[in-house]
Amino acid sequence: MVAAAMLAAALAFGQAAQVPDAAQFVGPPQGRPLAGEELKERTQYIGGLLRCPVCQGLSVSDSPAEMAVNMKKQVGELLARGYTEEQILQYFEHSYGQFVLLKPKFQGVNALVWLLPVIVLVLGAAVVFMKMRKLAQPSVAAAPAPPAPAEDPYVARVREMVGGGK
Amino acid sequence: MNRTVLAVGALIALAVIGILFLGLGKNPNQIESPLLGRVAPSFALREVGTGKTIGLEQFRGKPVVLNFWATWCGPCYEEHPVLVANARNLGSSVQFVGVVFQDTEEKIQRFLNDRGSSYPTVIDEAGKTAIAYGIGGVPETFFLDSTGKIVGKHDGPLTTDDLRANLAKAMGQ
């Protein structure tokens, strides 16, 4: 509403062009304005969390594409105005959706990205544990004793000659 | 034991196949805009040629076709005649607006002189309007209803059929 009124006033007085403002989507800044080295570092960091929409798997900080450069510049401007990391990510997510976040949020189908490796690891460990326990246990039913071998007739004959059959 | 392992393995495989099936059914280049159903971000940009400031708000009350393009974009050459012809045919019942970004005024003016124009074209100098609309590649076209709400989006060059289908939504038909 405020943004619309500002734009109407700008048009009425023939002022300079106005672009959509972050305040339209995420409200006023909730942090402190950054400057100097801190601003540069935070811009680089937050740019690293955003996907360049015209590249293949590159972050905004890593891409030389003009779109990425513009996005990084806007991150810097928002930080300088006092917007927080959360607000800035929310601003870009408002336009591009979760696609723009290089680290997906833990919600919906995206939660599987975090949960599946843990589930597979736990299941794998359970299988290994059960298998090892089975191998360590003695067999429950003892194997039947092998049948006594029938006495060799030659041995029986020798036995008879030396001791009378006992 | 072997049956349990087999069942768990089959379950995991089925889950992975299901996720792949859902994902592969979509065009990776077409990401549904989160702006659909929301009021279009406001802007007031300089018109190419006249230097006048044109604001989106001034078109409230009628459907708007908002086309993001650039002179360096090949498919934009393809769709330009479609936009120009339909804007002429539809007259004042629908407002067409071209938004050019990552470009120079001189090149845009030359493009419009060579290929004709029937609606205002504004220049998004810092690319911030394109970012607010979540533009990934041009051309991309948004369809706004008379209240300024985004009711449709088309990625890639428009055909008259695409345009009509989306305009029907914008006109509430």
Describe it for me?
The complex is a heterodimer of chains A (about 170) and B (about 170). Chain A has about 170 residues and is mainly alpha-helical. Among the domains of chain A are: about 25-105, Helicase, Ruva Protein, domain 3 (Orthogonal Bundle); about 105-135. Helices cover about 55% and strands about 0% of the residues of chain A. In chain A, helix 3 crosses helix 4 (about 65-80). Chain B has about 170 residues and is α/β, with parallel strands linked by helices. Chain B has 2 domains: about 1-30; about 35-170, Glutaredoxin (3-Layer(aba) Sandwich), CATH 3.40.30.10. Chain B has 5 helices and 7 strands; from the N terminus they run H-E-E-E-H-E-H-E-H-E-E-H. Chain B has a 7-stranded mixed β-sheet. Chain B is elongated and about 75 Å long. Chain B starts with a helix and ends with a helix. Classes of the chains: A mainly alpha (about 170), B alpha/beta (about 170).
The portion of residues forming beta strands of chain A comes to under 5%
Low-confidence stretches of chain B: none
Average residue-wise pLDDT of chain B: 91
Query: SSE string of chain A, helix = H, strand = E?
Result: HHHHHHH
CATH topology of the largest domain in chain B: Glutaredoxin
Examine the coordinates and then state which fold CATH places here, giving the name of the CATH topology of one domain in chain A: Helicase, Ruva Protein, domain 3
Low-pLDDT windows of residues of chain A: 9-14
CATH top level label of the largest domain in chain B: Alpha Beta
How far apart, in Å, are the first and last alpha carbons of chain B?
Answer: 60 Å
**Separation, N- and C-terminal Cα atoms of chain A:** 116 Å
How much of the sequence of chain B is in beta strands? Answer: 15-25%
Judged by helices, strands and strand pairing, the structural class of chain A is mainly alpha
CATH class assignment of one domain in chain A: Mainly Alpha
Q: How does the overall form of chain B come out from the CA principal axes? A: elongated
How much helix is in the residues of chain A? 40-55%
